[in-house]
Amino acid sequence: MSSATVITTDLILCPTNLEKIVRRCIPKEMIPFDYKFTNLSAISNLGLLRAMGKSTLGMFRSTEELFMLVANFLGVPGRANLMDFDLNGLYTTIPRMHTSLKGIDFVYKIDLLAFASLVVPCPFTNWQRNMVLSAIKGCQRFLESKWKSEIHSHCEMVQSPKDCLEWLSGQLAGVSDNYLTKAESLMKNFKPCSAVLQPHDLNVYWTEMLKLDGKGASVVYEILRTYNERHPITENKDDYIKMLSWIGIVARVLEDFMTNSIPSNTKATVRLFSAGKNNFVMAHEFLQSLKNKNFDVSGFEEEVLGMPKLSTLEFREVARKVNIQDMKNIEFIRITQPETKLQATPIPSPNGDYCVRAIDAFHELLNDMIVAKKVFQTIEKDQFKHVETFFDSVKEYFCSNQGVYFISLEDLNLIKSMWEECYEFKLKTSKQAKNIRNVRKGNSELDELRKVYLKLEKCLPNMKAIAGGEYLNKKPLDMYATIFQWQITALSDEITYITDFLHSQKVCTKWIPNSPCCGEGAELMEMVKKAYAEFQAEEDAKEAAKSAKGEKKNDEVAMEVPQKKKRSKRATAIRHSACALLYCTLTRYKFHLPAQPTSRKAVFVIVCSSHLASAQM
After folding, report:
1. Number of domains in the chain
2. Which ranges constitute the DSSP H helices of 58-178?
3. Closest Cα to residue 9, out of 79, 56, 63?
4. From 75, 243, 264, 450, which residue has the greatest number of CB atoms within 10 Å?
5. 366 and 302, same domain (yes or no)
6. Nearest Cα to 396, choosing from 274, 516, 501, 249?
7. pTM over 0.85, yes/no
8. Is residue 148 included in any domain, yes or no?
9. Tell me: the pLDDT tens digits for 125-151?
10. Which residues form the domain of 1?
11. Are residues 504 and 364 in the same domain?
């Protein structure tokens, strides 16, 4: 399992960086246009955001829940560059630890300094605290840039240096205790730089006295120069000396930590992901990790190199490819992603960029349609063809092939841009959609459900049948989740590959309750598919015969239309049995049937019912 660092709500993010991450986590339609990010406290900013956006952010029951959405993105390795943070502003990161199958904690190698910075105390307050935190963050970035040259891949992991982190914490805590009092006492008896009056002079003194790397010192100098404009050194000389001394102490301790305290992996490390009961690894990461440790990969290297990027290998397949002794020298580290609320959380990929889980990418896309833009509440039936065309255009990204569990972040951004173009030019309307509200306590749940079709049946004809079925036998308190699920269920009737994709990602029954593709209905539905294939073949034959007759009439060419082969009694019996099983399946799983045939699937249901009736005569 994965375990996040202890998350507290006192995170400090400068308004610029908080705005960047909020706009990365929440669709623009859900953020009030007049909201301003002004506070340093993340929780205060988010509380105001939730209050102003109550109608669009009502799915978040508390400010803390909204805060966790932001915190999840702060746990992404390399998040500062990914989120395009203002590196001169304040920001906090929340790296995660992950546990191997052998129970050992691991961290992403690029997160080591982020972990170390979490145990660094700050004995200052007010503007002095902000400057110190910004300067230490600058030192951290500089050390990370030096450290990256020693990293094979940004998905590389190392054993968590818990003992070293405890030592570092103890060292700095000992110095931090009463630091300002001690510094004040020393400065009364020793004037270290009485002639220092300008930022440049102070920077030279600080660099020489503390023997810090010149490039690292220049990072701090830029921050020093910025603060000097608001808090002149000439008026706050003693404060600056105390702050720079503390920054120098921390910088040297962090550098020592990175140089001497990082454990080296003696075993190959491979991330292990899961979907349902399936465990799998990224094929190219698996190959590269084993090659880095000089494993014999000749038996499968060519196969893996021929796979598309982000391909996966099931864990049992890995066990077949690697001998038992080598398996003992591999640490498989379980990676558990936080649940997606609105947008997919990025994952480092083997080729140096990022990817997301395919199901999370699909969830993000549907969230934008259903929750942010409320498309199916505002478009007309004749506009739905544009939705169908869009889904056809991105079908290749959401295929149901076995082993396709990831989509590159680049591809996700492409899908989103295609969707934005479709929406802006073909679906956007001035019509205002009705907002959803959670059900109040009491006995009004069923009445509320009946009221909130939200005119969805205009473009999703099966909506009333879906919402009027088993949902009315429950008392859902979360109307947002309920109506979201209604629309996915109805949409899967119109866009047929959705069900297959959800099934391939092991979430079909979670997304569509009582989905007949799994559980007891799986075998029945397999027979139903065969019956449907037979039905479709017959329909195609009829069309072909009709077309042939038309050509004969128009061209006045004698053409003998082949007679349809008579079905054997056994084949007819099998077909009737399959139709009967379809009827039982639809009944057992409370499948919603339209009053009038609205799709080929609905026509088939009616045909099957008629065949069932004839079979029972």
Report:
1. 4
2. 63-73, 79-82, 112-118, 126-147, 162-176
3. 63
4. 243
5. no
6. 501
7. no
8. no
9. 889 988 888 888 888 888 888 777 777
10. 1-94
11. yes
